[in-house]
Amino acid sequence: MKNWSSEASMCSWIGVTCDSRRNRVTELNIPLMGLVGTIPPEIGNLSSLVSLNMNENSFHGPIPPSIFNISSLEVLELRNNNLSSSLPSDMCKHSLHKLKRLRISFNELCGDIPLSLGQCSQLEYLSLRSNNFGGQVPTQIGNITLLQFLSFGANNLSGTIPKEIGNLTMLQILDLGDNKLFGKIFISML
After folding, report:
1. How many CA atoms lie within 13 A of 68 on its CB side?
2. Contact 155, 179 (CB under 8 A)
3. pLDDT exceeds 70 at position 22
4. What residues have CB less than 8 Å from 66, skipping those under 6 apart?
5. pLDDT tens readout for residues 79-91
6. Does residue 20 carry a pLDDT above 90?
7. Is the pTM of this model over 0.70?
8. What sign does the dihedral 98-70-136-132 (CA atoms) show?
9. Could you state, in order of their start, the residue ranges of all structural domains in the chain?
10. CATH code at 10-182
């Protein structure tokens, strides 16, 4: 990245947006930049970050847990990299209460979908598609009543589709295909 140097103010770097008042980084949008390597844990020090988009690069290794502690975060997009780890079981328990968009599809993430995801109550868009998540779809997903888009397709999920998905009356797109799930979904109509 040409202008990412110590001579230039970081707020003038490509993909970096800062707030004008405090000069703190609020957006880091660097998709399709050909970046390779691991995501440094220091990214969690960007405590004013509202939007993080690192889609379609070649990041590998774990998602640093520090990302899940950024309480100002509204958008987290890490789609189409080679990230491989599980998600923290308490990822939405203490922070991420403002998160509206979580898109970490097309990676190599594994483990169970955290039950605490149901505490990210502001989520409107949630995609974990095409990873290696196993276990069941947590019933707590039914608590995210603002969801409009939900994709858990192409993972290793099994068991019954939780009836609580029927609570998601704002849902416009639901993708659970290419798993070992069974059952019916009843949407409540008011």
Report:
1. 19
2. yes
3. yes
4. 41, 42, 43, 44, 45
5. 999 999 999 999 9
6. no
7. yes
8. positive
9. 10-182
10. 3.80.10.10
The residue ranges of DSSP E strands in the chain, in sequence order, are: 16-18, 25-29, 36-37, 51-53, 58-61, 75-77, 82-83, 101-103, 110-112, 125-127, 132-135, 149-151, 156-160, 173-175, 180-182
110 forms bridges with which residues in the sheet?
132
Residues 6+ apart with CB under 8 A from 52: 27, 28, 29, 43, 46, 67, 70, 73, 75, 76, 77, 78
CB 46 within 8 A of CB 22: no
Mean pLDDT score, 5-29: 87
The DSSP secondary structure of 128-172, one letter per residue, reads --SSEEEE---GGGGG-TT-SEEE--SSEEEEEPPGGGGG-TT--
Asked if 150 and 168 count as a contact pair (C-beta separation under 8 A), the reply is yes
**What is each CA distance from 184 to 54, 125, 128, 166, in whole angstroms?**
35, 22, 21, 10
- For residue 121, give both structure tokens: 């109550």
**Longest CA–CA separation in the chain, Å:** 59
Say how many residues make up the chain.
190
Asked if 104 and 79 count as a contact pair (C-beta separation under 8 A), the reply is yes
What confidence score (pLDDT) does residue 12 get?
87
